[in-house]
């Protein structure tokens, strides 16, 4: 799996994910993102799942989301193929977190950005 972070000119934090996500890679992502995500507020995150292939099996029990990080995120837009939307909703605990999370198809990047900027 490959992951890259970038802050766009519009202030949106872009996270590009491709391949199959493993537990250790996800934990590393959490560690790498901990400092930037806890030191800023009002973050708007665009996740671009380009060539995403799902999740590897493993012990995902201890990979929860940090409440301190969630306090700093205003909204998260996720661009991925529709076949992953339900699983990603569960993985991200969409309805249990205090932030707005919305899914968009890959051809709707402009709409996803507009949605984020309106939050």
What is the percent of helical residues? 25-40%
Domain unit count? 1
For the sheet with most strands, the description reads: 5 strands, mixed
Q: Report the top-level CATH class.
A: Alpha Beta
Number of helices: 4
Shape: globular
Name the CATH superfamily classification: SpoIIaa-like domains
Class based on secondary structure composition and strand pairing: alpha/beta
Helix-strand sequence: EEHEHEHEH
Q: Mean pLDDT, as a whole number?
A: 87
CATH architecture descriptor name = 3-Layer(aba) Sandwich
Strand content: 25-35%
CATH topology name: Rossmann fold
- Total number of strands: 5
Low-confidence stretches: none
Determine the N-to-C terminus distance: 30 Å
- Rounded to the nearest angstrom, the radius of gyration is 13 Å
Q: Strand sequence of the main sheet, in spatial order?
A: 1-2-3-4-5
Short description:
The protein is of the alpha/beta class and 119 residues long. It has helices spanning 23-38, 67-72, 85-91, 109-117, and strands at 2-7, 13-21, 43-55, 73-79, 100-104. A five-stranded mixed sheet has the order 1-2-3-4-5, with helices on both faces.
Task: Describe what you observe in this structure.
The protein is α/β, with parallel strands linked by helices. It has a single domain, classed as SpoIIaa-like domains (Rossmann fold). It has 4 helices and 5 strands; from the N terminus they run ββαβαβαβα. It has helices at residues 23-38, 67-72, 85-91, 109-117, and strands spanning 2-7, 13-21, 43-55, 73-79, 100-104. A 5-stranded mixed β-sheet has the order 1-2-3-4-5, sandwiched between helices. The longest helix is centred in the first third of the chain and has 16 residues, at 23-38. It is globular. The model has no long low-confidence stretch (mean pLDDT 87).
